[in-house]
Every structure is written in structure tokens, then in C-alpha cells.
Amino acid sequence: MIAAANPPTVPAFVAFDELAEHYDKVFTRSLIGSAQRAAVWRVMRRVFKTGDRILEVNCGTGEDAFFLARHGMTVVACDGSSQMVEIAVRRGAERQQASVSFRVLRTEDIGVFRGQAPFDGLLSNFSGLNCLCDVPAFFAKTAELLRPGAGVVLCMSSRVCAWEVAWFGLRGRWGEALRRIPGRTVAVVHGRHIAVWYPRISTVVHAASPWFRAEMIAGIGITVPPSYAENWAQRHSKLMGRLAGLDRRICRWPVIRSAGDHFLLVFRRSEV
């Protein structure tokens, strides 16, 4: 996502509808996307257990839902983009994956799942929550859907991305290098402009604190670059492997963990 200067914005699902057919090519199956997703998957496997029933928001084309299903979990996955969900449903049918169900639903509307509660866990991967206007309201609704002790895994875009500052700064493109710093901006997704929020980690932890306790904080993409550096990554595939290994070693270091392309939070639903 690249920032733009005060253009009119559209709802996020409109932009992702138009990106849907290209998403797996430009991210899911890319070197960078695979490396960043693998880091999240390692954490998901520790937090979620075989037999769990997981609610996923911002599910995209279903890659994470299918991963959980392969490990013996049942997943209810939703996304505001009907085109993303259409692709996910098609992929599920091809894989004969009956333990995953998909639904077109904005994250703001997850309260409709109260009749299906409680879930054993909740997942939101790769920045879907950066498009929300009211994150405390999201946690309040989520708390009603999860059993006590349920795990929550959230991956969001960071406010400071060291790779991004260096990548664009060395090219003299300081507007793009520092675009996340103000915390709120307008980003370009497949030619569409959407409003995006880049929170501090402490802000998200505080918003969740009435209902959830933070168990883990990690950086994703600290040494692995953001997805727009894919051409560079393809030319340096061996180096990418080393960078991914370094990411694993340093991802929980204080301060450093706040400088990745994303940050990863693990919460636990408080006992009631």
C-alpha cells in the first residue's frame, strides 16, 4: 500500500474486490508474502489447537483458513470483499475442504456471529484491522464471541517500518518513506484510495485490555522487506532465506519488534 495526497477514498472492500484476482499472485505466492505468512503460521500453530473452532476476519482468498483446516480445525472465515470470498469458496471446493465455511461480512459486523458463539479462537492476518475506524468496538464485539481462555492472533501493519524508510529514503522519496508516521493516511490499493490507520502497538494492547491480556508481541518483516520489494527479493532469493532466518531470531526483541512491516499480537480472552 502506497500513500497518496488527500484523494477521495472508497471503502476498503471496494479496493480489495478489484485486487482479488491478482492477490495470490502478488502476495500469497510471492517470496516475501510466503516468508511473512510462514512467520505468522508458526505462531498460529502454537496458539490454536487441533479440534478448535476458529473465527477468521479479513480472510482474503482463504490461505490461512485452509492452513488451519489442514491442522484439524474448523474455520468460519469472513471478508468484506465479495470477490475475495468468491475466490476462497472456489479454492475450498477444489480442495474439497468441508471444514472451512466462508461468508461475505465486514469486520465491523461480526456481532452477527453471537448465535454461533463461543469460538475457540480468532484470527485477523495482514492488516485488515488497519482499515477499521473503531478498534475498541471490535474488541468489545469479539469478546462476546470467544470462550474464556480463547486465543486471538492479530497481524497489523506497523507505524514504523525500517525497510520502508530505507527503501524509499535512499531513493529520495521521503513522502513514501515516512507515510506511516502520522498514524493515519490514505493508501493506494490497486489504483483505489482507502483510509488506513497505523497504530502503535501499545494503543492496540490498551484497546483490548478490558477483555484480553497480551501474551506475545512480535515483529513480522523486520529484515524481510515489504511486498513491493518482490522484484528485489526474486533477484536475491538466497539472501531472502537468510533474512527470514534473522527475522525469526530477532522478532521479539523490544524496540526492534516495532520496526517491522507488520507486528503480531497474541491475546488471551480473560476469564469471566
Note down, in words, how this protein is organized:
With 272 residues, this protein is α/β, with parallel strands linked by helices. The protein has one domain (20-158, 199-269): Rossmann fold (3-Layer(aba) Sandwich), CATH 3.40.50.150. It is built from 10 helices and 10 strands. It has helices at 12-28, 31-47, 63-70, 82-95, 135-145, 162-169, 174-177, 201-208, 230-235, 237-250; strands at 2-3, 53-57, 74-79, 100-104, 119-124, 146-157, 184-189, 192-197, 212-220, 262-269. The chain has a 7-stranded mixed beta sheet, sandwiched between helices. Strands 1-7-8 form a 3-stranded antiparallel beta sheet. Helix 2 (31-47) runs parallel beside helix 10 (237-250). The longest helix has 17 residues, at 12-28. The chain is globular, with a radius of gyration of 18 Å. The protein starts with a strand and ends with a strand. The mean pLDDT is 93.
Write the layout of secondary structure elements.
Layout: E1 2-3, H1 12-28, H2 31-47, E2 53-57, H3 63-70, E3 74-79, H4 82-95, E4 100-104, E5 119-124, H5 135-145, E6 146-157, H6 162-169, H7 174-177, E7 184-189, E8 192-197, H8 201-208, E9 212-220, H9 230-235, H10 237-250, E10 262-269
Parallel strand pairs: 2-3, 2-5, 3-4, 5-6
Antiparallel strand pairs: 1-7, 6-10, 7-8, 9-10
Helix pairs in contact: 1-4, 2-10
